[in-house]
Amino acid sequence: MMLKGTLFWAEDIPAEGVPHFAVIVSQENEHGEVLIIPISSIKFSKTGQMEYDGQRCKYYDNACVITPEDIPGIIKKPSFARYQYATVSSNFEFLKKQLQSIFKYKGNVSEELLIRIQNGANISKEIPERYKKFFDFFETVDFERECIR
């Protein structure tokens, strides 16, 4: 089953009670597991140490910035791929969480955005080392494919 490119609302990523949108960014490994990268909004603050588009903000990983235009109607403010909260799920676990309404399907990201998120994972200093083995499963695939709805 092809899940790569799936965008969903996750009630428990990075933890229960701290929901985020998330994207499956890899094909399955030999154990049927996929790599999931959450998306977090950039938090603007007058006392922030960083800047985004000329505005001060709190820390964000600039390896992959996501704009509302990248995921229209879903992402409402500038966001970023939150590699530090990357996680893994098996197909079985993903489907089980969908049935429990913990994961709510929102569509698929564009191939261009998927590649940007994958490239960001390769340069981010935030992604845990243990997930870099999934980089071998980043091959781009034809997006005219069957997907979970």
Layout of SSEs?
Elements: E1 6-15, E2 18-24, E3 33-41, E4 50-52, E5 55-57, E6 65-66, E7 79-81, E8 87-90, H1 91-99, E9 103-108, H2 111-123
Could you explain the architecture of this structure?
- This protein has helices at residues 91-99, 111-123; strands at 6-15, 18-24, 33-41, 50-52, 55-57, 65-66, 79-81, 87-90, 103-108.
- Strand 4 (50-52) and strand 5 form a beta hairpin.
- The strands form two sheets. Strands 1, 2, 3, 6, 7, 8 and 9 form a seven-stranded antiparallel sheet that branches. A two-stranded antiparallel ribbon has the order 4-5.
- It is built from two helices and nine strands; from the N terminus they run ββββββββαβα.
- With 149 residues, it is α+β, with helices and mostly antiparallel strands.
- The chain is globular and about 45 Å long.
- The protein has one domain (6-137).
Q: Report, as a whole number of angstroms, the end-to-end distance.
A: 12 Å
The total tally of domains equals 1
Q: Spell out the helices and strands N to C.
A: EEEEEEEEHEH
Q: What global shape is seen? A: globular
Keywords:
7-stranded antiparallel β-sheet, alpha+beta, 149 residues, two-stranded antiparallel ribbon
Kindly summarize this structure in a few lines.
By secondary structure, this protein is α+β, with helices and mostly antiparallel strands. It is 15% helix and 32% strand. It is built from two helices and nine strands.
